[in-house]
Amino acid sequence: MNEKPPRQTMTTPIALTIAGSDSSGGAGIQADFKTFAAFGVYGASVITALTAQNTQGVRAIHSVPAAFVTAQMDAVFDDLDVKAVKIGMVAQLATIAAIAAALSRVRPAHVVLDPVMVASSGDRLLPSDAVSALLRDLFPLASLVTPNLPEAAALLGEPIATDAAAITHQGRRLMALGAQAVLIKGGHGQGAESIDYLFRGDDVIALAAPRIPTKNTHGTGCSLSSAIAAGLAKGETLETAVRNAKAWITQAISAADRLKVGHGRGPLHHFHRFY
Asked: Which of 16, 102, 113, 237 is the most exposed place for a label (fewest CB within 10 A)?
């Protein structure tokens, strides 16, 4: 009798997103879960806020109490083997403290911090009094921080960088605040290419991709940071995870116009590889 070989067990890569919920499904927790699924990673979530929004703007925000944010994090980390954490919308000062305290206890291997301050529609998602706490409490815990050009400028109290020299200056300043690495995203820049700059140690790596003429970019920042977290959860190096995420997000933006969702800034096509 031929015996069947024993089934090999494989570790399921798990990534956790700590972010707000987008009722229209294009950004936040919903975008993160779509991204994790597109990369073959199991997603867990800690919801920091509920937003009433659509492709045209944010109508209301309901922050989750900080104690319940802590309860969600404790429940996830007590049971799941989380390989990477992505932090998006933190909503309020008390939530930042709760997230920092929990991460300091469990010390996950990878933390990708997307400093979400303003929605694609222009609506503010982080109170000004919470910015200093974000820098003080979360930057030192981050493996990677992923601001876009306006966010990098706002975090530093400087004008928006318009050239490589200014971007390098701001990247170095953000690194000095405690993050292990910084990715300044160039989607808000000008020119035929969208260039992201990865700062790590003394290295600066420029990652260029064609700038795609579409208004449907809702959730781009959320999706890029969660794509990087997914790669790290699968065991990729930081540079590989960033490169793979950049290639994927470029394709997702290129395919965005194939979707017909809403009347404003529509979502990316997270599952462009599949349909």
From this structure: 237
What range defines the domain where residue 149 resides? 14-258
pTM above 0.85, yes or no: yes
Rounded distance between C-alpha atoms, residue 44 and residue 48, angstroms: 13
The one-letter amino acid code at 87 reads: I
More confident: 78 or 119: 78
Contact present, 185 and 149 (Cβ < 8 Å)? yes
The pLDDT tens digits for 242-270 are 999 999 999 999 999 999 999 999 999 99
Is 263 domain-assigned?
A: no
Told to judge if 222 belongs to the known catalytic residues of this protein, a careful annotator would answer yes
Q: Can 185 be counted among the known catalytic residues? A: yes
Pairing assessment for the beta strands 111-113 and 84-87 based on DSSP bridges: parallel
- For the chain, helix (H) and strand (E) counts, in that order, are 8, 9
Per the residue annotation, which of 51, 55, 217, 250 is the catalytic one?
217
Q: Which residue has the tokens 């050009």?
A: 149
Concerning whether 262 is annotated as a catalytic residue, the answer is no
Distance CA 188, CA 148 (A): 7
C-alpha to C-alpha distance for 46 and 68, rounded to whole angstroms:
9
Identify the active-site residue in 34, 83, 86, 185: 185
- The whole-number pLDDT of residue 185 equals 94
Mean pLDDT of 152-168: 93
Here the tokens at position 212 are 């795609």
For residue 207, is it within any domain?
yes
Q: Which of 28, 220, 234, 250 is an active site residue? A: 220
Give the number of domains in the chain: 1
Considering 20, 43, 171, 221, which one is annotated as catalytic? 221
pLDDT exceeds cutoff 80 at 192: no
- Write down the pLDDT at residue 128: 73
